[in-house]
Automatic annotation (TrEMBL):
Domain Peptidase M14: 30-299
Superkingdom of the organism of origin: Bacteria
Protein name: M14 family metallocarboxypeptidase
Active site location: E274
Lineage: Bacteria, Pseudomonadati, Pseudomonadota, Alphaproteobacteria, Sphingomonadales
Amino acid sequence: MTSPAPYPVGTPGQPWGEAEVAQWRARQMRQRRYDTLVEPRIKALADHFTLIPYGALDYAGEHYPLYALANGPVDPALPSALVTGGVHGYETSGVMGALEFLETRAADYAGRVNLLIAPCVSPWGFERINRWNYDAIDPNRNFREDSPAGECRALLALVAGHGAPFLLHIDLHETTDSDEDEFRPALAARDGKAYEPDTIPDGFYLVDDTKNLQPAFQAAIIAAVERVTHIAPADAQGQIIGSPVLQRGVIAYPLASAGLCAGLTGARFTTTTEVYPDSPSATPEECNAAQVAAVCAALDFALGA
């Protein structure tokens, strides 16, 4: 078996320093625009939702305002739900699915739930089609109070200022072929570890919380999404991306202790969606629709619980 070529940044076996991060950063070219593809759609929704600027990121002269949308002032008599997209900026349907939910379905929940939606948590990563932020930090491992990632600190402050506990948090993600081609090799190189090849699951799956398993909730989302796109099967070891499959299309991580976005609220119902956009049978529209279906199913289940 041929060993994979060394990652083009750094020295194998040695963690990166500032020089290697700078070399990695120089390779990240802007490939799309947050201010033309995302910001205008967010601002257009201000006619129907409350627009909440919750901070900004400034990276080497590039300014990224951060926005959330709410369906009105917090009503203490109603439960609250958080929807996040674009924590990994390259995962396109996380961003577009959150926006499509706002544009097409969010109004259906008026008077039933306090919605708070952050469609694009990591705009620098969105533009570079990258998993990490400007500092080669993965936001989705750093949701803690002392986070080194500005994306995480801003979202934590937004959630803390909401003023009511959350019943639900659904975090919209993708697992892509580039995870294996680029991002996992980059992670191993950054940390000075050997890269161990893995496989990419073919289909949609969910990540539950090992500290708060909600199997019926996860199953309801899988059932809804299956009407839109296919569900990832377990591999020969009964796993998906190295984790045991607990039920069809569902694995689990310790969300809060791992610093994952879906663990930041302590909500009763939490999940991370993982859409597979590289399937030959999937289209961008199908991937966005799968995210919308997941959000609606999550809300319907939680509100009926």
